[in-house]
Amino acid sequence: EVQLVESGGGSVQPGESLTLTCTWSGFVFDEYAIGWFRQAPGKEREGISCISSSDGSTYYTVSVGGRFTVSRDNAKNTVYLQMNSLKPEDTGIYYCAVDTLNYNFCSSYGPIRGWYDYWGQGTQVTVSS
To answer: Is the pLDDT of residue 40 over 80?
Structure first.
C-alpha cells in the first residue's frame, strides 16, 4: 500500500525559507514522478512543481520558479522542496503526490492533478509579518 507523508511546514515571515520533505513507502514501480501541490484557503489545489525519479528532470510554475527548488533522494524514498524568499501568497497547505504512469511528461506538462494516484495529508505553510 502506497503511503506518502509531508513534513517541514511552519510559520515564517516574508523573505524567510522553509524546506518541506516528502517520504513514502509501498511503491511498486521504479520510475515515477513526485508532484508538489498547494491549496490556499478557499482556493483550488494547484500544482507548483514536480520531479521525475529517473533523471531528476523538474518543472516549476512561474510563481515559484527561481525561489523553490525540488530535489530527490531515491535511495531514501524522499523528495525535498526548498522554499526561499517566501511570500504571503505562498501560504497554504502543501501536498506531495506520486504519478506512477506519466513520469516522462513531468518536465513538459508539470504537475497535473489527474495524473497523481496517491497523496499525502499535507503540511501547513504560513507566511506573514
So the answer is: yes
What's the whole-number mean pLDDT along residues 75-95? Answer: 95
The type of residue at 83 is M
pLDDT at 29: 65
pLDDT of residue 55: 86
Calpha distance 27→77 (Å, rounded): 9
Short-list 68, 79, 85, CA closest to 116: 79
Contact by Cβ (8 Å): 39, 113: no
Query: Is residue 28 very low, low, confident or very high in pLDDT (cuts 50, 70, 90)?
Result: low
- Per-residue b or e along 23-51, where b marks 16 or more CB atoms closer than 10 Å to that residue's CB: bbeebeeeebbbbbbbeeeeeeeebbbbb
Q: Which amino acid is at 92?
A: G
Contacts 24+ apart (CB under 8 A), 86-89: 86/12, 86/14, 86/15, 86/16, 86/17, 86/18, 86/125, 86/127, 87/14, 87/127, 88/14, 88/127, 88/128, 88/129, 89/40, 89/63, 89/127
